[in-house]
Design goal:
The chain has 13 helices and 8 strands. By secondary structure, the chain is α/β, with parallel strands linked by helices. It folds into 2 domains: 197 residues, NAD(P)-binding Rossmann-like Domain (Rossmann fold), CATH 3.40.50; 87 residues, NAD(P)-binding Rossmann-like Domain (Rossmann fold), CATH 3.40.50.720.
């Protein structure tokens, strides 16, 4: 099989490299000429443990290519993955889908024969419907299906997450599209990875629901940490005590300065806005967003208090600026 991966950012590059490791022929596409030139020299645009070696091996094996020519990459592809950015839109908190929709239009103009168009980017519910509309409007004669296949990659362990995931979620009711996706993920099926086929809108919501739940868990333990300081309890012991409960689990129960990174801030905001638009507000997540924003200010206040009430004229060292280990992401 042959796939085109539109976008060589974090999701696109890792996904493309991992699919090629499965034995699939992959062409990664990006408009950034400099980025593609560097990838040809095996210079990665991001830091992810093991990614440079994975890319090098599969380029050498003839399974992975990089190009700025979207039309050439798409025309022979069995599946085209949209893995472009969906940043928070300025002013209103919604996800900016302009890159997704622009990619959909270019894909429509380039594809030949039956093609599965897959949204790998994190997108709000209903985005797949709009992608389908754009392609149909651009190419009324096109033979295609639009599928949702959200990524669940953690920065710092993304390759392991792709190669040995907890699950794969695929949103489509088309039997032809399901068969293409089954072939692409066959190596994971063979190691008994759960593969969940759902409706497209359900798949889109699963991604947001997962990330906002984890953000809520982080926010919960941070508020418990505040209470521990007031009552003289040890938040680490509290975290361990509740994390040992199998219904709760120990992950994402580490108190700190609040969640950050490339996903949680924008995804919580986007889900809040989507829920409001549909007249079904998520009060819990609205509070999570509010509490997390306040948490950052509290951390600054703690630093000032530790410096005697003022930081004027003082030097402050920061040990580590990325939001987590094994990544260069400072968001």
């Amino acid at each position: 099989m042959r796939i085109a991966m539109i976008g060589t950012g974090y999701v696109g590059l890792v996904s493309g490299a991992c699919f090629s490791e499965f034995g699939t022929n992959v062409v990664c596409v990006d408009k950034d000429v400099t980025k593609i030139e560097k990838l040809h020299e095996n210079i990665m645009p991001i830091f992810e443990p093991g990614l440079d070696k994975l890319v090098e091996n599969n380029v050498s094996g003839g399974r992975l290519e990089f190009t700025t020519d979207l039309k050439e990459a798409v025309k022979d592809a069995d599946a085209v993955f949209i893995a472009v950015g969906t940043p928070t839109r300025r002013g209103d908190g919604h996800a900016d889908l302009s890159y997704v929709y622009a990619a959909a239009k270019e894909i429509a103009e380039a594809m030949e024969g039956y093609t599965v168009v897959v949204t790998k980017s994190t997108v709000p519910v209903g985005t797949g419907d709009e992608v389908e509309r754009i392609i149909r409007e651009t190419r009324p004669d096109a033979d295609f299906d639009v599928v949702s296949n959200p990524e669940f990659l953690r920065e710092g362990s993304a390759i392991e997450d792709f190669m040995r995931p907890d699950r794969v979620v695929i949103g489509t009711e088309s039997e032809r599209a399901q068969e293409v996706m089954r072939q692409l993920y066959r190596p994971l099926f063979l190691i008994e990875t759960p593969i969940l086929f759902t409706q497209r809108r359900t798949s889109e919501l699963i991604k947001y629901a997962a990330n906002t739940f984890l953000a809520a868990k982080i926010t919960f333990i941070n508020e418990i940490a505040d209470l521990c300081e007031k009552v003289g309890a040890d938040v680490q012991a509290v975290s361990k005590g509740i994390g040992l409960d199998g219904r709760i689990g120990k992950k994402f129960l580490h108190a700190g300065p609040g969640y950050g990174g490339s996903c949680f801030p924008k995804d919580t905001l986007a889900l809040v806005k989507t829920a409001q638009d549909y007249g079904s507000p998520l009060k819990i997540i609205e509070t999570v967003v509010e509490v997390n924003a306040e948490r950052k200010k509290q951390m600054a206040t703690k630093v000032i208090d530790a410096c005697g009430g003022s930081v004027e004229g003082k030097k402050i060292a920061i040990l580590g600026v990325a939001f987590k280990p094994n990544t260069d992401d400072m968001r």
